[in-house]
Amino acid sequence: QVQLQESGPGLVKPWETLSLSCTISGGSISSYYWNWIRQPAGKGLEWIGRFHTSGNTFYNPSLKSRITMSADTSKNQLSLKLHSVTAADTAVYYCARVPRSVRPTGIYYYYYYMDVWGKGTTVTVSS
Amino acid sequence: QSALTQPASVSGSPGQSITISCTGNSSDVGGYDYVSWYQQHPGKAPKLMIYEVSYRPAGVSNRFSGSKSGNTASLTISGLQPEDEGDYHCSSYTSSDTLVVFGGGTKVTVL
User: Which of B47, B48, B89 sits opposite A45 (nearest CB)?
Assistant: First the structure.
């Protein structure tokens, strides 16, 4: 079964770039959309964006100017970069899979929920 | 401030039923059957409990059920058990440029 594992630096200085990875095991990175979600301590979840290796991406408008999502298919690994971070970006960051089904036409349909989540990685923005 | 509104907390005694509401608008909850619910225990990742308003993934107890009326979706937990304690988050597709929105989360306490 597919498993996701996020990794990152833990501590990032203000105004620097946060770089996170999500390693996918037990499944192909190219077969699905992948979401990034974050959760500040004691608060709710925030959707960051949705990525496919085809290049189709959807970003949260509130973060769009600072986000870059990409993937290394040879490593089955997703990447999230968040530029010019501030204390407000301190959170647990998750990657999650977006499931799909196949239409009778043979075209894939991607859902809007997330069925497999990584355990998350904590990021603190502080000098 | 979250796009979807959930009560901060809901509690119940073992064996009772509780319902968590999730209120949005016609651009999200009310306009589409794309509401999902996630359970989260402290220090753990969210777990999918309900998708597309009322469908349960394999392995999720049938004590969990979802419904929707107008702009409000609901998650009902029947036969409340101690292991049901945790935070519950609703989510929905939105036709706004955000694509996916979440509620602020509801803390469930088993008394």
Answer: B89
